[in-house]
Amino acid sequence: MSDVNLLASTVCSFKPEQFHPEVTYTATMTLEDVFVAPLYSFAWAMNNLFRGHPVSRNTWPTDSYLIPEYNGPQNITNILQVTGGNTIFPWAISRQDMLSCNWELYDNYMLSFDLTSDAGVDTVNNQKDWGYISPTGYLTGNESPFGTLAGLKTSTDVASIAMFFYREPQNAIWMKLVASPNNEQKVTELLNKNLTVTVDARIYNLGSYSPDWSLNAGTYSNDDAIKLGTVLKQTGTKTFGFNWE
Q: Rounded to whole angstroms, how far apart are CA atoms 163 and 220?
């Protein structure tokens, strides 16, 4: 979360012209170009939330933020508040929430990255994968590397990600983390903690990993792992946020 917000902890006070900026139309104009809610206002926060970005107020604890609740791909039915990193309940909005101008985007993850998911096929073992495998990942049969992972940010001892993908028919998430020099044990300890993955403003509780064939590599195979697998099957680039506790 940002350390500085020019409107931090203040009640909103704006000039009318701030809501009606001059806009020069272009063929490539997007919603972001013409949206006129002042930065850090409640309206600005809700616009971001409805587009799938978690938001928070900079006076809230660092592990407290809002996410939308869906009952379909585009149908938001409620706004949920996450506290303690994993406790979720319906948000009780206050008047101060609506009047304050200290809203911000939430991205307080221990590890995050942008993933452009792709598919790989191992015809020898009759299995299919979706997500990302680097040339140093676990490649079976005649499978080749696939997917693109970029923009890694981390406060952990993880240096890179060798693979993060969903495999059928095992119905499991496979992951391998590469530790920074001399920190393999710290990454192993991290993997033994409970992992939650946030993507598209939804939280998936994967639990702790089941160690597999290599150091700091293993699988997650609970119900949320299967749900996350449906996300990895989708096209386009998505931001994934990891937290362990």
A: 13
- What are the pLDDT digits (tens) for 10-62? 556 666 555 555 555 556 655 555 556 777 889 889 988 887 778 999 899 98
Q: Is 188 exposed, middle or buried (0-12, 13-18, 19+ CB in 10 A)?
A: middle
Q: Which residues contact 147 (CB under 8 A, 6 or more apart)?
A: 115, 116, 117, 118, 131, 132, 133, 165
Instruction: Please count the other Cβ atoms lying within 10 Å of the Cβ belonging to residue 121.
Output: 15
pTM, full prediction: 0.69
- The answer to whether residues 57 and 37 touch, using CB atoms and an 8 Å cutoff, is no
Are the C-beta atoms of 183 and 157 separated by less than 8 Å?
A: yes
What residue segments make up the domains of the chain, in order of their start?
Answer: 16-105, 111-244
Q: Residue 35 CA to chain centroid, in angstroms?
A: 24
